[in-house]
């Protein structure tokens, strides 16, 4: 193992530890949800999982490479796998607070011979703040635990509107906006196309239900009617029944219009929804001009090919999808593509080996005479690399926490130490800059940073940060701790003859517009990018 990383060796514990003076926690969906309580974790998730873990590690590397950023102190990490499972994530997150609960301040004790007692266990540093989670259902569970210990949490992906409620989530912030903004954006898109009679489908979970409520609230304000409302359950039989009900209700002879379906569902719902919809379309023999037009929230993952494989492509065609406005981070991509077997930073993330085995169907450490596919021979290529859309927001979350730590580091650890030493050594002299450089670094983390007051850190430091992020955009939190509200509007166009957009990252998803909440709500749609047949279909 690399000297840079210390791993817990138990096969049942899914986490990595990176040593440092101050520890930042991380919670990411490295694996999909398992099929049973005995198997809480499923297959490894490359984009939403591994990419986000590496985005956090990359951001820590950038900060730690700047000696003046935290005056020589290093940020470390404790990164956990949520397995896309709220209950499992909550259990895992106990590691963020376990040391805090069980630790003893030895300075309060003294041995009979007058010496200072020593702990028999290697001391672990308390977690200063946590980056994560991703799915809102996971984030809410983790936030409910962390708030009890006043640990600050910054999510790079969770958009649940309730998380802005400071009476419930006092130490929570995020680098993405609330779903309330997304609902307004979807309303503005509907008004742009004069869709005043729509259907609404949402998942039976917090993400779906809160998103649907926000949409209905905005729809009432703008006189948009909801003809059909369908709540879908993750249980297979109930799921099929919900889709059947939806298709039947959308038949033209039953209800005119309302073929525009506003979709607020988690990413795991979409593949089955598209499959069931395509099957119903085939059975009903629906002509093209009578098919469903999806207006989907950012829960639709364009990097997930399972959405559009086989017959699903027919059901998904023409979908209008909101995506949090993000940009690719070239420096991160260069870093990530360099992570190949043999690279020192490849070994610090144990999940990369698992990803290699899964992605390349190979094994590590085989004897020379073995004919089995060797993982060491496989390399990533830029041609097949599609980075996760939220890499930018993960990096923003780490930078925000680090920026927030700068001020207390300086005042408590640097200036506080200088003041104490100045009063003892040279109370009447002016402290020279050379003296500061010689004496301001303490051998261990200062006591003020060992147990950070989450309430003070959140209000006084974190929410006040302002910085230029990794893509040159200015970042700051809203008073509620939310990130800026900017969305990109995509259209799924699988045909080969459609025009390509310069901003498109996946060839079948075309950027057709943008929405932002500044002083005035604005939606900009470039209708010329829609194919003529598709534009008539959308407006007809």
Q: Kindly report the name of the CATH homologous superfamily of the largest domain.
A: Response regulator
Number of strands: 18
Top CATH class of the largest domain: Alpha Beta
Classification by helices and strands: alpha/beta
Low-confidence residue ranges:
1-13, 420-443, 496-506, 531-540
- The CATH topology of the largest domain turns out to be Rossmann fold
Query: What composes the largest sheet?
Result: 8 strands, mixed
Portion in strands:
15-25%
Q: Helical segment tally?
A: 16
Determine the N-to-C terminus distance: 61 Å
Count structural domains: 2
Helix amount:
25-40%
* Overall pLDDT level: 81
What is the element layout, followed by pairings?
Layout: E1 15-18, E2 22-28, E3 31-36, E4 39-44, H1 46-64, E5 75-81, H2 86-102, E6 127-131, H3 136-146, E7 152-155, E8 172-174, H4 179-192, E9 197-203, H5 206-221, E10 225-232, H6 236-249, E11 260-264, H7 270-284, E12 293-296, H8 312-316, E13 320-324, H9 330-337, H10 344-347, H11 350-360, H12 391-425, H13 433-439, H14 447-450, H15 454-461, E14 466-468, E15 474-476, E16 486-492, E17 509-517, E18 521-525, H16 532-539
Parallel strand pairs: 2-5, 2-6, 6-7, 7-8, 9-10, 9-11, 11-12, 12-13
Antiparallel strand pairs: 1-5, 3-4, 13-16, 14-15, 16-17, 17-18
Helix pairs in contact: 1-12, 2-3, 4-5, 6-7
Main location: membrane
Protein name: ANF_receptor domain-containing protein
InterPro entries: ANF_lig-bd_rcpt, GPCR_3, mGluR, Peripla_BP_I
